[in-house]
Write a structure and sequence with these properties.
Endo-n-acetylneuraminidase fold; three-stranded mixed β-sheet; wnt signaling pathway; alpha+beta; cytokine activity; 2 domains; four-stranded mixed β-sheet
């Protein structure tokens, strides 16, 4: 009887905390990457087993995961970073990426990734950039055994064909963007079919995200010398703050191109698109940093699992202009909103006493927030 109770308890824990598996796997992957040569053979094999526990992977992706388990773990970190940034960028939109975190640690398992919406195009570009960003930075940080600093170095990449302006300038450890982009293609583009038009659009959006990341690479320098005289300077190329990359992808989302209808019936070698709402305009070859979509987005007003839409009921909205992002009129879809008082206790009327004590009173802070019905 005691053994039976233990088995039931384990089953309940598995059902209650499915998301905890991801964080355990990430911790395990990091141990494997740092102590790979010290681990016995049976522990190395267990890293292969963990690749099967991440949902939504294709057979080809699992093969990549088995071959480079430590890099795949960093790739999953990049995917989660992309999901969190998606939630920030769309926090005042009807669809706010909230379903991507609860579905799986892999956002590509979400139903919306199988559609052709503008939001889908944004997600493909953002996740591809996120994987490239995370892997490139991990290489320079020494977290991976398969790569290191950018072998080209700062000077070869930044000053190719130019004369050296300062002979006392050294090249630091640049983030290995080339390796990050290569693994992003190897891990994400392998999901797509060769002759399928939707797959070609997905790969184009993946490349758009990577292209935007590459265009945002920064040069950072550190001065050395007495009193900051900068007699010696070390420079390196670094990946930017990911929010800047996501904001640029969001701007491309606003002006995403619709794939020309005549393209949907063929198998074009060059994808063409036209601006949204301009059906009569001539379709042109899509720039490499533009986003492409082919399906009109739903309203996302009501909950619909087919689109991974949680609806907008219960969302916080803004009272004000109807055209304002996140306004109650737009976000609540005409259902109206309710005012709710939110109370909290905060320190106030603080007094400093010499030395060294601060005494504060506890005051109630009331705020009124608008909630969509």
């Amino acid at each position: 009887m005691r053994k039976l109770k233990v088995a039931v308890g384990k089953r309940r824990m598995h059902r209650t905390y499915p998301g905890a598996i991801y964080f355990v796997l990430i911790a395990f992957f990091e141990v494997v990457s740092s102590r790979d040569n010290m681990l016995p053979h049976h522990l190395k094999l267990s890293s292969t087993l963990t690749c099967r526990l991440i949902g939504g992977l294709t057979r080809e992706q699992r093969s990549v995961c088995h071959d480079a388990a430590d890099t795949a773990a960093i790739a999953f970190e990049g995917l989660q970073m992309a999901v969190k940034e998606c939630q920030h960028q769309f926090r005042w939109h009807r669809w706010n990426c909230s379903s991507l975190l609860v579905k799986s640690s892999n956002p590509h398992a979400s139903a919306i990734m199988k559609r052709g919406f503008r939001e889908t195009a944004f997600l493909y570009a953002l996740t591809a950039a996120g994987v490239s960003h995370a892997v490139a930075r991990a290489c320079a940080q020494g977290r991976l055994i398969s790569c290191g600093c950018d072998p080209l170095g700062y000077r070869a990449a930044h000053e190719r064909g130019r004369t050296r302006t300062n002979k006392w300038e050294w090249s630091g450890c640049s983030h290995n963007l080339a390796y990050g982009v290569e693994f992003s293609k190897k891990f994400l583009d392998v999901r797509e079919k060769v002759d399928d038009l939707q797959s070609k659009i997905n790969v184009h959006n993946n490349n758009a995200g990577r292209s935007i990341l590459s265009s945002h690479m920064e040069v950072r320098c550190k001065c050395h010398g007495l009193s900051g005289s900068c007699q010696l300077r070390t420079c390196w190329r670094a990946t930017p703050d990911f929010r800047a990359v996501a904001s640029t992808i969001k701007r491309q989302y606003r002006k995403a191109l619709v794939v020309a209808q005549e393209e949907l019936n063929n198998s074009p070698s060059v994808l063409r698109g036209r601006p949204r709402g301009r059906r009569r305009s001539r379709a042109r070859p899509a720039p490499k940093s533009s986003l492409l979509f082919f399906e009109k987005s739903p309203s996302f007003c009501e909950a619909d699992p087919k689109f991974d839409s949680a609806g907008t009921s219960g969302r916080v909205c803004r009272i004000g202009r109807t055209t304002r992002t996140g306004s109650c009129d737009l976000l609540c879809c005409g259902r109206g909103h309710a005012l709710i008082r939110k109370s909290s206790i905060k320190p106030c009327n603080c007094t400093f006493h010499w030395c060294c004590r601060v005494d504060c009173q506890r005051c109630q802070d009331d705020k009124w927030i608008s909630i969509c019905k």
